[in-house]
């Protein structure tokens, strides 16, 4: 393969065979969040492609580059579908593809199945945020939503905190029951299935909202966010009450420019109404990780952490997978040029 340009295709089965641990994914994501805080990353806010498909779903396109990865930096582009009805045809709602490039020559280095990457880097971002924004003695985790990213959220948070109870719910009884059984097979922490957002989040120390709404609905209300709680909402369509920000002491985002882009996101109505502004924003998470801004400063603060999903996390986890694939000679080499 000395002639021409070649790239490595890392398939879903290859990703499974590499077997990155949750701790390795969290560490990779935390390093790149810190790099973002030090302004060592370049990325553009995500864009959306809405095909003419009767509202079945859309594509997100994420682009980013990280100077500290590889020998002299890595750039990447991920395209991920968001198709809620896919469960009716036996498919995940989110299927993704990531391409990695040399940022100095533009030469493609790899194509990766990024479906698993999307799931775990989302959970890792939740965990990185919780490490600095949740109370260290958090005992009850409430999780609304049972889609692919939900599993990584809970597994990574359970590994980080000494939890006494995990509550889960979702729109469909069959999905929440199956989700709970999957968690019970993996975790020692008791898992409780509830039939409502209220029962799941009321009194929770860490509350995660990952709903699959089709139109804004005020499921998460002020009375459900207890004193000292961390709320992590990241549903595509907002499930937050309009006045929720009134009881929040600190709003932290993964990236302020990203938070302002596009038409989707948990805090989109609150930005439009002026309830969340650049002046009221406490920090970007990278600023907290690097110590530029404080994280949690008291046990009574109610903190909201909104992460939309940064391309640089996909690039970081993708590059780690590529390095492991190269070391193990996994994947398929494809002639590019």
TrEMBL record:
Gene3D superfamilies attached to this UniProt entry: NAD(P)-binding Rossmann-like Domain, ornithine cyclodeaminase, domain 1
UniProt xrefs under InterPro entries: NAD(P)-bd_dom_sf (IPR036291), ODC_Mu_crystall (IPR003462), ODC_N (IPR023401)
Domain of life, per lineage: Bacteria
Family annotation (PANTHER family): KETIMINE REDUCTASE MU-CRYSTALLIN
Protein name stated in the entry: Ornithine cyclodeaminase family protein
């Amino acid at each position: 393969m000395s002639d021409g340009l070649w790239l490595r295709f890392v398939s879903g089965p290859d990703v499974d065979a590499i077997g990155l641990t949750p701790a390795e994914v969290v560490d990779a994501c935390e390093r790149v969040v810190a790099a973002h805080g030090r302004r060592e990353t370049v990325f553009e806010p995500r864009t959306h492609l809405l095909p003419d498909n009767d509202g079945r779903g859309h594509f997100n396109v994420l682009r980013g580059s990280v100077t500290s990865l590889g020998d002299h930096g890595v750039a990447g582009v991920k395209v991920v579908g968001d198709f809620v009805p896919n469960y009716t045809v036996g498919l995940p709602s989110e299927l993704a593809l990531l391409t990695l490039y040399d940022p100095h020559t533009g030469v493609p280095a790899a194509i990766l199945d990024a479906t698993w990457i999307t799931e775990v880097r989302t959970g890792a971002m939740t965990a990185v945020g919780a490490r600095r924004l949740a109370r260290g003695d958090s005992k009850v985790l409430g999780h609304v939503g049972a889609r692919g990213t939900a599993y990584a959220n809970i597994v990574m948070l359970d590994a980080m905190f000494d939890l006494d109870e995990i509550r889960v719910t979702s729109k469909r009884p069959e999905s929440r029951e199956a989700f709970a059984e999957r968690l019970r097979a993996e975790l020692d922490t008791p898992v409780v299935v509830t039939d409502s957002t209220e029962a799941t989040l009321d009194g929770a120390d860490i509350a995660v909202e990952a709903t699959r709404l089709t139109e804004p609905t005020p499921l998460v209300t002020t009375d459900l966010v207890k004193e000292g709680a961390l709320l992590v909402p990241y549903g595509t369509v907002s499930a937050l009450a309009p006045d929720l920000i009134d009881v929040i002491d600190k709003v932290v985002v993964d990236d302020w420019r990203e938070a302002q882009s596009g038409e989707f996101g948990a805090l989109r109505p609150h930005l439009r109404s002026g309830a969340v502004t650049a002046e009221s924003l406490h920090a970007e998470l990278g600023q907290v990780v690097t110590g530029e801004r404080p994280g949690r400063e008291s046990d009574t603060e109610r903190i909201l952490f909104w992460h939309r999903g940064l391309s640089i996390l996909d690039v970081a986890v993708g590059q780690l997978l590529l390095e492991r694939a190269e070391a193990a000679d996994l994947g398929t080499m494809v002639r590019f040029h």
